[in-house]
Fold these 3 entries.
Entry 1:
Amino acid sequence: MRSPVTIRISFYPLCLGWFCLGQFGVVVYAAGHDNTILLSQVLHDTRDAFYRSPGWGTTAPYRTGAVPAGTSVRLRIRTAANDLTACYIRIWDNEASAESQIPMSVFNSDGVYDYWQGQVTFSKPVDTYYAFRMVDGGAMDERILCRARLV
């Protein structure tokens, strides 16, 4: 059984000077569990507190991506609604040369976008970076959207 597909159509007037010919529709995107990830709809801004909290440079004296050990960092990513079947935060620890995956969950959906969220906490200082591993059925894509010393 195929999952529902989200289609957004926008209508625009077609005018040439003072003469209007009517309206035409434009399909912006279509999303569903179809083994295709709509990367054009993916958004994460590491400097925006909505997508990363505590945000970049908001914790004194840390004016980079670092936070004190033991601090939980909430990471969010926006995707097209109903596009992904799973999403993970991929953490790479440079000192231990180890990787871990933290599952994310959809915390909000407005019909156009799904907003995924996950928490990362380190007990000791570590040089790390994070990426998002996005899954839509058999399709998987990974985007390294930030390299930062989280702790």
Note: Residues 1-8 have pLDDT under 50 and may be disordered.
Entry 2:
Amino acid sequence: MTASTSRRSVIAAAGAATAAVSLAACSSDSGGGESKDTGSGEGGGDGGGGDAAGGALGKASEIPEGGGKVFKDQKVVVTRPSANEYKAFDSTCTHQGCAVKEITGGNIVCPCHNSKFDINDGSPTGGPAKKPLAPKKVVVEGGEIKLA
């Protein structure tokens, strides 16, 4: 410390630096769920079809009754609540934009913050997400699931 630098100045500068670091750490979360953290997004996609209407996602027989399958490349999750019923949802979690990863226990699960969504309607059943997954339309033709 030099004669021109007071102890009060050093303490004030240290306090300001600490406050700046704390604010920067807290501001990484936008607070409104608007952040687009993509996460790992690993799923069971087969890579075919794309997002266009009519694009084949896979075989209907690949979707277990009471479960579902994430098609990572097409950003869609297909569920099968009952034997002849197929539902589809956008695979982007409504909490912070991570990709959902698995379907277990009747729920679509996001690995980032453990949000869970009902396989019947995409509504949130647990975790921090408050909004449902966006529905998508699918049809089964010739044993294949296709985006409608």
Note: Helices lie at 7-26.
Entry 3:
Amino acid sequence: MNKKLIIILVFILFISFIFYNNIKTIQQYEIPIVIKVTKNIGIIVDTDKLYYAANPGGYATRTILLQNQYPKSVIIELKPKELSNWIILQNEKFILRYNETRKVEITINPPSSTKVGEYNSTLIVNIKST
């Protein structure tokens, strides 16, 4: 390798390191998710958690609204903590500008082999600086 190429690679690594370390988590929320797997049809309208009711092998979708009230753009990262193979996120990572509101659909899909019962998970919402 010639000297110029090595200097360029070191510079790129340095800039990447600085950029990566400047993205800091501003705030983190944990939203409880309750999934009721049942053979019956039901509607859950409580708002203290994300409640779902679905048949084994079926699905249910809820929409949440996220609004950025920070005075600058932020990065939103959504990730289920448990049962991640059951939970489908419309958008897992995106940027919200100041005062922007975005709807995000969260779908649960318990496998057809799931036994009837209540299951719990948590949706992690990370808000990071841009």
Note: The mean pLDDT is 86.
